[in-house]
Amino acid sequence: MKKAFYNGILASLVSIILNFTFKVITANVILKSSLTLYFTTIDIFTLTLLILVGFRSSMVVTFAQIKNPQMIVNIFRGVLIFIVLTVWAFIIPFLKHKMGVDIHYWYLVATVLGMSLSIYYSNIIAMYRLYGIINFVTFLEPLVALFWFCIAYFIFHQDGIRPLFIATIMSTFIVSFYIYKMSKKHFPAVSLKRPILDDNAIKFIKNSVISTVEFGSGIVLLYVAVLIMIKYFSTDELGDFQVVTKPIFSYMVMLFVFPIFRFVLPELSKLIHEKKFEEINSLKNWILRYAFIVSGIFIVVSMLFSSELIGLLFPQEYINASLMVKHLSFFFIFLILNSYQISFIKASGAFLSAMLIRLFGIVSLIVIFFIIYNFYSKNVISVIVALVSSYLIMFGISFIVEKKILRELKHSHKIEN
User: What is the pLDDT of residues 231-245, one digit of tens each?
Assistant: First the structure.
């Protein structure tokens, strides 16, 4: 698992470079209006399909506990079909007739189908803990998208928004086909059957819905900070956060936090189910060392070089963003540790607790910002302080919940023996 974890960081780094290359090339050859419309469309599809991504944690934990892929996969298939039909009926007409996405109807249908299949197979390989395939797919999708965009635009001379959608459709279908072919070597295909809604199935559905809300809350937290900046601060200060600080923070999360949910959560699910407490403790100690090393390097680089690096990569008017980055770097360790804690809590089956912790983080961000803004300082750094404080509060609550769950698990294990 640790080897796959480090390989995952490398795969994520390659994926970021490929995605950035894709954005640079498209920004130079596609009209800004068309590019904006494309990314907005993909964002809308992604948010609509969020419930499918939220199923992943629940699938991983349920499979570790009951080893019933028939029930898990068929319920997930039913939800996937329902979501795809809903998008087809409501979202695609909205994009065509309200937003004015000037592309043939079937391009949008194929995009939704491709994205849904990609999420479906990604969740399946996460459930079976096929780490090698997960890492390969991480950079395969942006690589294939870049390849097909170049084919469509430079060789077949497709114009407007078309080559962008061709790249998305081809990359998602190719990735889905690759996962399908590779996964057949590791587990048998699950036949399509109507699932029996017993207690395990109902619990799985409930946990999946809660996990979706929890996953979405983590994303919403960052956008709440954006909305606060839009309302209370200038366009320049918002630009510092949107153009520089948020992308740097997002890349750090993608590189060093997402692998925890991708690899550590499935491993914790297995270890908790097997009551291997020594291995759980060893895994936590490893995460602690990892968190101190990563956050320590982030702090040193931010304090010594953030102003120079931002000045080198961005226009001079964004230089004030370095102060935001410095504040974020000191609290990044709590984000990493909280990701482990949330993974442990979810791996134990306490999905509701994980969701409530995330929601409390959002409330904390808002409350702390208004306290600082109204009683101490109206500086834009108040938003950053409120953001990092929310992560610190979530860490504190998660620490208590994690300890409580671990005590209960050890107590139940003693009773069983």
Answer: 888 877 877 877 778
- Vertex 73, ends 70 and 78: CA angle to 5°? 115
Domain housing 50? 2-196
Would you say 188 and 182 are in contact if contact means Cβ atoms under 8 Å apart?
A: no
> What SS3 string covers 72-108?
HHHHHHHHHHHHHHHHHHHHHHHHHHCCCCCCCHHHH
For residues 274 and 189, membership in a common domain is answered with no
What is the Cα–Cα distance from 380 to 361, expressed in whole angstroms? 20
Q: 3-state DSSP call for residue 264? A: helix
- Percentage, residues of the chain above pLDDT 70: 99
Distance CA 177, CA 83 (A): 21
**What letter represents residue 203's amino acid?**
K
pLDDT in tens, 279-298: 999 999 999 999 999 999 99
What three-state secondary structure class fits 188?
Answer: coil
Q: Which amino acid type is present at position 85? A: L
- Best CA proximity match to 294, nearest among 321, 329, 249: 329
User: How far apart (Å, rounded) are the C-alpha atoms in residues 292 and 289?
Assistant: 5
DSSP summary character for residue 314? S
For residue 316, which amino acid is it?
A: Q
Residue 362 CB coordination number (10 Å): 17
- Residue 257 sits at φ, ψ, to 5 deg, of -110, -45
301 and 326 together in one domain = yes
Q: Model-level pTM?
A: 0.82
Shortest CA distance to 194 belongs to which of 368, 73, 371, 292? 73
Alpha-carbon span 363 to 369, nearest angstrom: 10
Question: Residues 182, 267: one domain?
Answer: no
Query: Is the same domain home to 352 and 411?
Result: yes
| Phi, psi of 337, rounded to the nearest 5 degrees | -65, -40
| Count of other CB atoms within 10 angstroms of residue 226 | 14
Task: For 274-290, give one letter per residue: b (16+ CB within 10 A) or e.
Answer: eeeeeebeebbeebeeb
Residue 38 sits in the same domain as residue 156: yes
What is the rounded distance in angstroms from the CA atom of residue 245 to the CA atom of residue 239? 9
Highest mean pLDDT: which range of 31-40, 93-102, 130-139: 130-139
